[in-house]
Amino acid sequence: MTDSLQIAGKSYNSRLLVGTGKYKDFSETRAAIDASGAEIVTVAIRRVNIGQDASQPSLLEYLPPSEFTYLPNTAGCYSADEAVRTLRLARELLDDHKLVKLEVLGDSNTLYPNVRETLKAAEVLVAEGFDVMVYTSDDPIIARELEQIGCCAIMPLASLIGSGMGILNPWNLRLIIEQSKVPVLVDAGVGTASDAAIAMELGCDGVLMNTAIAAARDPIRMARAMKLAVEAGRDAYLAGRMPRKLYSADPSSPITGMIGAK
Q1: pTM, whole model, 2 decimals?
Q2: Which among 141, 191, 193, 151 is positioned nearest to 168, based on CA atoms?
Q3: Which of 23, 49, 147, 206 could make an S-S bridge to 28, C-beta 3.0–4.6 Å?
Q4: Helix 193-202, helix 170-179: angle, nearest 10
């Protein structure tokens, strides 16, 4: 069966997107991403060298763009203008690359998105021909406005960036999933494999994570666990869970036709 993730006109077998920061070195980054099976890797342009500094090792040497789809992001940006400038730089560094992740933060303590600045930046970037995957709050109205602007994927937080708190408001995520005609991917807050599985069981099209893997005691093993969790959650969603029944026991084995039954 073919069940690929479609983003900006391209198909991906993996529904797990992985960040490239916070690892001890680029070798560990490569090993973790290989274990995750991810095909899309997100890169913080303001923090990771992809050619800005020719005197330092470049991530491009360890994760060649011929093998992975790069997703430059605006981590660390606190205004629309700053985010737009950062992604214009990414487009130059990556030879007119169009697929980007937009995030505009509200404050340095919570890293919660500033949705007003996010909307402003999204309008500019879409008008300039970028394919914009956008990090946002779990507000269904803001998610709808970002889709109407032309963003190619909506990426609501599960909980605060780097918190590992998991999905705190599944009901809002369900509302966003049900109304959206573009892919919806959980971005931020995943802490362990069960969080990723729950996101997929809710009907998310994918999950993006970084800290949950990079900050694990064994990042390579955690990356593999996340791969399996995303796959299992997707299969469970497609299979359709049994109905919940309150106070209504239903034995797994039928009792009709049992030997000695009347």
Answers
A1: 0.88
A2: 191
A3: 23
A4: 40
Task: Give yes or no: 24 in active site.
Answer: no
Find, among 90, 101, 35, 36, the residue nearest to 65 by Cα: 90
Secondary structure E strands in 69-158: 69-73, 99-102, 131-136, 153-156
Nearest Cα neighbor of 213 from 198, 193, 194, 228 is 193
User: Could you say which of 101, 181, 227, 245 is catalytic?
Assistant: 101
For CA atoms 227, 23, 155, 196, give the dihedral sign.
positive
State how far the Cα of 172 lies from the Cα of 141, in Å rounded to an integer.
10
Residue indicated by tokens 């660390």? 76
- pLDDT tens digits for 109-123? 899 999 999 999 999
Sheet with 131-136: strands ordered across = 153-156, 131-136, 99-102, 69-73, 40-44, 16-19, 206-209, 185-187
Q: Are 29 and 63 in contact (CB under 8 A)?
A: yes
Grade residue 244 by pLDDT with cuts at 50, 70 and 90.
confident
